[in-house]
Structure formats: C-alpha cells, structure tokens
Write a structure and sequence with these properties.
With 339 residues, this protein is an alpha/beta fold. The protein has helices at 39-46, 94-97, 138-141, 147-159, 175-186, 198-206, 220-227, 243-252, 291-302, 315-326; strands at residues 2-6, 13-17, 28-36, 56-57, 62-69, 81-84, 121-124, 130-132, 167-171, 190-194, 211-213, 233-238, 253-261, 282-285, 310-313, 333-336. The strands form 3 sheets. Strands 3, 5, 6, 7, 8, 15 and 16 form a 7-stranded mixed beta sheet that branches. Strands 11-10-9-12-13-14 form a 6-stranded parallel beta sheet, with helices on both faces. Strands 2-1-4 form a 3-stranded antiparallel beta sheet, covered by helices on one side. It starts with a strand and ends with a strand. Bound molecules: (1R)-1-phenylethane-1,2-diol (FEH) and zinc ion (ZN) (2 copies). (1R)-1-phenylethane-1,2-diol binds at residues 38, 40, 49, 60, 112, 146, 150, 264, 288.
Length: 339
Amino acid sequence: MKAARFYRPGEGLKIEDVPEPKINAGEVLIRVAGAGVCHSDLHILEGSLPLPNTPITLGHEIAGYVEKVGEGVKGFSEGDAVAVFGGWGCGKCKVCLSGEEQLCNVLMWVGIGVDGGYAEYVRIPSPRYLVPLRKLDPIKAAPLTDAALTSYRAIKKARDGLTPADFLAVIGIGGLGQYGVQFAKMTGARVIAIDIDDSKLEIAKSLGADFTVNPKKENLLSVIDEITYGENVARVIDFVGTDETLMNAVGILGKKGRLILAGIGGGMTSFMWNPILPPEVTYTTVFWGSIPELHEVVSIAESGRLEINIEMVSFDELNETFERLGRGEIRGRAVLVPR
Ligand code: FEH
Ligand code: ZN
Ligand code: ZN
C-alpha cells in the first residue's frame, strides 16, 4: 500500500510502497478515507518535535471504513464508517481507564509512536478507539479526531463559571481556532477572535465571532479594553502558543480569568509570572482530548453544528501542503485522501 513515511527532519515525507498492516485478534484494520494535516506534523518534519522511533508513517487525525475485524472484536463490521481516536496509551492505568488515554505515560499515539494514517490502511489496536460515524462523510470527519477534539477539550476547560455576560477570546483562527470559535459560541459567552491574518478573521466572523481583532493592525490591549469596558476577558484560549501570543493572552485577561494554552507554536513558550498580573488568574494547558470527548464531538458534528472548510489533498501534494500550512495558507483543514 502507499504511505507517507518520515525518516528524519528536513527531508519531508517519502511516499513509499509498504506492506499492508496485518491485524491480530482484538484489532481492526481501517481503510483510511481521510487523514487531517496537522501543524504538529510540521514541527516533526522541521525537527522541533522529535519522535521516539523512525522511520514511521505519520498521520494522527484519521477517519475511514472498517476493512477487517480481528477475532473477538464486537460491535463493528466491515464497511462501517468510523472516526479514530489517536491518543493511544497502555489501556490499563488510571487515565487510560478514564478514557483519557492521551495522557498515558506509555505514548503509543497513532502516527507519532506507531504507524499512522497517511496511508491507505492503518492498524487499530482496539475497537475502543473507534467512534461510529452515522451521517458524516469520513473525509470531512477526520479533523474531528484532533483539531476539533483538542479545541473542544480547551473550551470544556474554559466553560465552568462562564456567563453569557463574559468575553471569551480565541487566539489563532487556524483549524483548531475555527472549531474553537464554534465551540466558544456554544458556551453563550461573547467571542472575540484574534489573528494576524484578516482572511482568517473573516472566517471567524462567518462562524459566529462577535468581535475580531488583528494585533498587527490595531493595539490589541486598547481594543479589548474598549470592547470589555475595562474588564478584559474572562477566558483566553491560545491556539498558537508562541511567546508573542502568550504575552497578548496575559495582557487581555481579566481578574479571576483563565488562560488555556492549546498551541505548541514554538517549542518553549514563556510568560512573566508576577504579582501585578490580574488578580487570581489561572493557567492550564490542553493535551489533545479523551475518548468520551471524541464521542461528544462526533455527536455535535452529527447535529450539524460544526463546519470547517476541508481541502482534500493527494499523496503527491502532501509535502507542498505542509509548506503551505507553514505559510498560513490553509483556510480550514487540509485532509489527505489516500486514493
Ligand atoms: C501531536 C503530536 C505531538 C504533540 C501534540 C500533537 C497534537 O496535534 C495532538 O492533538
Ligand atoms: Zn495534531
Ligand atoms: Zn495508560
């Protein structure tokens, strides 16, 4: 089968012919319909995110069809359309048993620790990682498993204590940020979209953002001060995660506010932690999402409340797609369609 293989940073992905995965009892073989092109893979290709074992087939944002079920697998049959939870762990520890396998110490993430979905087929170690897709096209559903799932977990961390009177700022309107705006609107808070690309802010507006700010063209702190009548915002979700965006996030946060860092935009990001910060603010990071949360995201998408522009790409276009992603030229989410 065809697969996009990562050997070492700086060499891009090599499109090669490799053996189709063989499955054992309890496992499932998926025919990949779509695999989302994620910024994290760009960090891997560039070398800022080292991988434990190479060469490896990348691709951790996967949806497709059940091709074959191993002995003992129940609940799924050949031809079923499914979304794939990719944060695979040991399956036995406390976080794994709670469904938060992405937090397990044993990092077996698909496309990161083991061969992933930039391929015609992918081996799934357990049916617990499969979420049925009833009405959704798996090509369009692939980004639900990472971009949407991560932004959903971020919004869930923002939600408690939030009222419709509050402001929720979303920094970075790429794939994750576009889902983030939509989930943020579902909380009832007023949503402020922040990005340095006006075309992304236009998308945010079409997705329901109440305000948009371009920090390259306006003074972010004074615009936010004006919008919030000096109160600043109750929540900031930073989907970029560079020193600059993090400083902006801290600058617009109000008292008892919460900053949620969901982006891994530049290796180590830092911000000044000091007593003159707004009083009683809290900070947290987001690490992908859990299996139960993927079921929730699929259910929300099935109800028609999530949209994003999907750009289908082929194996031959994959390396160039990563270059375009790096230049901020992908309007929604690019999805590899491996056939
Ligand atoms: C992938 C690899 C490493 C870190 C984070 C990620 C995210 O894209 C998973 O959501
Ligand atoms: Zn990702
Ligand atoms: Zn575990």
